[in-house]
Structure formats: C-alpha cells, structure tokens
C-alpha cells in the first residue's frame, strides 16, 4: 500500500486568486480535478484507492509532521490523501 498526499499552498492560492468572490469554489474545483485525475490514472493501472479528505489539517496542525518530514513550507495545507494498492476483491454492498 502506498499513499499520495495532496497539498495546497495557501499563499499561492491567495496570490493567484486575490479577492475573487468565488475563490474558494475555484480552489476546491482545482483540488477535485487533480484528485479525480489521479484516481483515474490509478484505475488505468488496475489499482484501487480511497480518498480521505483532511478538513482539519491546517488550523489544528494535523499535517505539521508531514510538512516537517517532507520539508514543505508552513503555508502548505494537506487537503487529502489517497492510499492505493492492489485490488484484492470486490467491495461489499453498503447499507
């Protein structure tokens, strides 16, 4: 099992979008497109994935240890992680 970590540079987003009214919508769409693209690429390789989103990372410092290990700037916020690996079976039905 491996994991893709998705980060967003809050400073770059602010500088790139400025005070646009729909800035949050634009950045969320950008994140979603990147995550979907990675999901599709993994599926093409016959790999399965899940996509837990990190809604508490920046304010609570949840992603601090990841940023330290990867030597990332403080302005980077982890927005999602995508564990992936071989598909061992068909998922069961959800209630």
From TrEMBL:
| GO biological process terms on file | cellular response to oxidative stress
Which molecular function GO terms apply here?
oxidoreductase activity
User: Which SUPFAM superfamilies does the UniProt entry name for this protein?
Assistant: FMN-dependent nitroreductase-like (SSF55469)
Tell me which InterPro entries the record gives. Answer: Frm2/Hbn1, Nitroreductase-like
**Protein's name in the database:** Nitroreductase family protein
The organism is Ruoffia halotolerans
Q: What is the lineage of its organism?
A: Bacteria, Bacillati, Bacillota, Bacilli, Lactobacillales
């Amino acid at each position: 099992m491996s994991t893709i970590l998705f980060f967003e540079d809050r400073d770059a987003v602010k500088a790139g979008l400025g005070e646009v009214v729909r800035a949050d919508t634009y950045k969320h769409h950008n994140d979603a497109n990147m995550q979907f693209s990675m999901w599709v690429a993994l599926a093409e390789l016959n790999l399965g994935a899940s996509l837990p989103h990190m809604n508490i990372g920046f304010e609570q410092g949840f992603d601090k240890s990841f940023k330290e290990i990867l030597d990332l700037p403080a302005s980077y916020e982890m927005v999602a992680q995508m564990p992936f690996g071989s598909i061992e079976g068909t998922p069961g039905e959800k209630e």
